[in-house]
Each structure stands twice: as C-alpha cells, then as structure tokens.
Amino acid sequence: MKQLLFALVLFVLLLPGIQKYIFSIPEPPLHGAFKLIKADSLTKQGWFSGEFQKQYYAAINDGIGLKSTLIRLNNQVNYSLFDLSSVSTIVVGKSGYLFEESYIRAYTGKDILKYEELRKKIRYLYQIQTFLEKRGIHFLFVFEPSKARIYQEFLPSQYLSDKNYHSNYSEYLRIIHREFPKLHYIDANAYFQGLRERVSYPLYTKGGTHWNHFAVENYFIDTLFRYLGSVQNQEFPKRIQCNLTWSNKLQPPDDDIRLTMNLMFQDDKQKTPYSDFTYVDNLAFKKPDILVIADSYYWHLYGTEKYCRFFNRNNFWYYNKSRYPEEYYKGNSDPAFLCDDLLKHEFVILMATEINITDLFLFPETTLSWFGMDNKDIISIEIKRQERIKFYLNAILVNPDWLKDLKSHVTPDKPLEKVMQEAADYMVRLELQKKKQ
Fold it and tell me: How far apart, in whole angstroms, are the C-alpha atoms of residue 67 and residue 63?
C-alpha cells in the first residue's frame, strides 16, 4: 500500500511535466482578462538587470502542464465544498446565485455620494436634454436593472446586516422627482422589480451578471420602443414571440460570471427560456437614428439583429470611450467630430447600472464642454483630469517595464501614443473609482 501511494504521489508530481513534454492532453483555456508571459531572448542588458530572469520565471510558471486544469480543480473545490469564489470580485450567494461585489456595494449604499454631487449630475443631464431639445433631438436617461437589487433575497446575509437606507439610485430618483420632474428617463430597475413579482420567467440566470436574453428581448426592448414611438408619434413594427424553448445550455453572455470563475463544471442546472420573433410590417415606419452611451448591458441589444433592424443608424459609445461601429469612428476621436456626430442623431440615450451612475462615464461633463456651456465645475473637473493624465503619461515614460508592456499592444491601427493615452486615461478612471469607495 505504501508503495502504491508513493507511486501515485510521484505520478501526480510528474503529470504536469508529462503533459508539457511527452503526452499533451487538450485543455480548455481559462476565461478572464489576463496575459500569458513569454520569456524574451537572452541579452546582456536583460541578464544583468534581472529582467530576463524575472520574465523567464513568469513564463515557466504560465507554461506548467495542466495548469488550467489544476486552477479549475482548486476553484471547484472552493466553490462546491465551501461556497467560496476564487475570484475576489465575485460573491457566491444563496441557492447558487452569483453576484459581482460592486453591485452589492451599490445596492447596500456603500458607494453613496454626497447629495450635492448627485444633484449636480442630474442638473447636467437636464441641461443636455434642454440643449438637444432645442435642436429637435430627443434625450433619454435609462436606469438599467441590477441583479443584486432584483434578487436581493439571495445575497449573503453578512452584506445585508449593515445596509444603508439610501443609495445613489434612490437619491437620484428623489432628486429627479423633487427638482427635475421634466427629465426624461426610464427606470428599468423598478420595472424589473415589478416583473419579478408578476412573471415566472427568470430575469437573470444564476451565473450571469446581466439581464438574460429573454428578459431584455421580451420586456425591455418593447418598453424602449413604446417610449421612442410615443415621442416620434409613430408605431414601431409589432414584434410577435414564437418558438419559446427552455434550455440549460446558456447562450453567451447569460453565464458570464460563472465562466470567469473557471470551474470544472459550468452547468448551473437552471433552465432558461429563449424565443424567436416575427414582425408585423409597418410601411409607414421610419427608422430613426440612435446614439446610445452605455456600459456592457447594451451589448445584449447592440449585438442582436432583432434589435438593430429597427434603426437607420445605431451607434454605441461603450463607456463613452470605445465607439461603434469601429469602421465609422476609426481615426475620428476629435471632440469637434464627436460633438457633430452626436447632433446628427434623432435620439441620444444614456444608459447606466447602479455601479456606473456615480460618474455616468463622465458623459455629462464632456458633452457640456463640447456644447461650450460656461460651467466652472465642468471646466475644473476637466482641467484636473488632464493634469492627472499628463502625470501618468510621464510616469509611463520613466518606467521601462510599463513602457515595454504597452509597446507590446501597439498595432498598425493603434500607435504607441494612443496606447499610452488609453493607459493613462484608465489610471485616472481607476483613481476616481477608488475615491468613491
């Protein structure tokens, strides 16, 4: 028995080497945002600076045989035996529901801002709406739903023990109702809370962080179309549901959180509905031009033909940074071009979840500055932001490791200057997020 156990332990220790050098076993890649390290060629400078040794060690670590499988096995043990997530930003809730911690913080009011800051944001939005209305452009603000709020009963008890009575979301609504009642908005958060009580269909999957396909296609799109149609005094073509099916094979991104946990077994044993649609043609319908500034929730709409077919131009500013369609915005990042482009749409829609209503992607500030409105607060914020961007650009230039890493992201379409600018901008946004926390 001792010999058998010794042989088994020895085999397990040798298995990664066997996988890497003798008999390769196919492994599914890990999900998530990370970069595998490859060792650079040996140079005199790299050897004596220690950079080559550091990179070589990291490359060996990333190249260990069966590393992906062992990581998944470790994560599965933590999840199945202890209800723990190996990803720091993911929380395991009750009954197998998974949540992003940032949404729990927003729901429980842990990221709440001062009243003056929230009111200032709403005032900016109302200024934008007024400016656009004078030019025949409709503005709409959408509160996207939050899984932590819709399925709050599945949150771990320790997160609810010291929940604040107020949150940024509740304060926004209070300010709008009391001081800016003419601001055009849709509260999908409240709408989905009501749906949760009335319908038997799941609005979120256990392993997803966004509204699922069925919820956004059957409920939100219809709500949005009714609003847009009422504003333009036209009726969008009627959508008729057909071919309703239930499946436990989830379509991306309905299982996005579970995938990033990198478990051995991804099936959450929850059947989810999917359906197709037919359309009743409306010959009088005129497709509008629409611009949406939003977070990842909008990918559910922007990426589907069922939605895009109703618009002449359907442009998407992802986090007010990346702009789609890419071929249209390629090389066109000048504020004058973007302002002119914004004014060419019939609808401008700003959509944000609870975790993003704190800054609204800085869209209100940048847009008002484009419009040339004399607002000292906006000018001050932008000056400070540009100063921090310059600080990080200089920090990159004096940090050889950072500069070298950024050079590896250079492409023919993205020169080093643009890569550095994006990195500096990201660091400034990270600073703002940490201040809020």
Answer: 7
Q: What are the structural domain ranges in the chain?
A: 2-65, 90-214+252-268+284-373, 375-437
List the structure tokens of 360. 């609204």
Strands 138-143 and 289-294: unpaired
Report the C-alpha gap between 326 and 316 in whole angstroms.
Answer: 10
Q: What pLDDT is attached to residue 94?
A: 94
DSSP E strand stretches across 118-250: 138-143, 185-187, 238-247
Distance of alpha carbon 273 from alpha carbon 262, whole angstroms = 24
What is the tens place of the pLDDT at every residue in 381-418?
Answer: 667 778 888 899 999 998 888 988 888 888 877 788 88
d(Cα 52, Cα 49) in Å, to the nearest integer? 8
CA distance 107 to 103: 6
Q: Which residue has the tokens 């299982």?
A: 255
| Residues 87, 81 contacting (CB under 8 angstroms) | no
**Tokens at 115, concatenated:** 């009243």
Report the amino acid identity of residue 130.
Answer: T
